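Below sits the subject:

***
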Amino acid sequence: MEVKIRKARISDLSVLEDFLQQLIAVERPMDESLEQEKFIKYYEVSEFIKSEHAELYVAISNKEIVGSGYGLIRKNKSHFSHEFHGYVGFMFVKKEFRGKGIGKLILNSIFDWFRTRDIKETRLQVYHENPSAIRAYEKVGFKKNLIEMLHYLD
């Protein structure tokens, strides 16, 4: 199976919007804070295609988009050693293509883009209840860092 990675195009939006809804469907059971019934969007996917501070990549197999992920350059707080860091998000691979290294290919493209922008540090967020994603990120060099905790008040 040959997989190519390329920058996303506006013409990819309908597929990418569907990926976003599939991602939200997976994450809803992991986060009680998310609206459970309403249609939601985490972000406007088109903004990652248009922005000079972001790069959205897609994985293509047999002319079909099978995965996605974006890199976004974010400003660090003043007490960090680097002024900016890279943030990775919207990592999604269609179910039937998972476990084939496609996520790693997308991440490597994002990392390459970060290097061209002189970014030295990359961060992401992943749900604790998503061990397969955590393992995939650890395989490419991410390590657990900060734990965000949540407590609901009565």
Observations:
- DSSP finds four helices and five strands in the chain.
- The mean pLDDT is 96.
- The longest helix spans residues 13-27.
- The two ends are 52 Å apart (CA to CA).
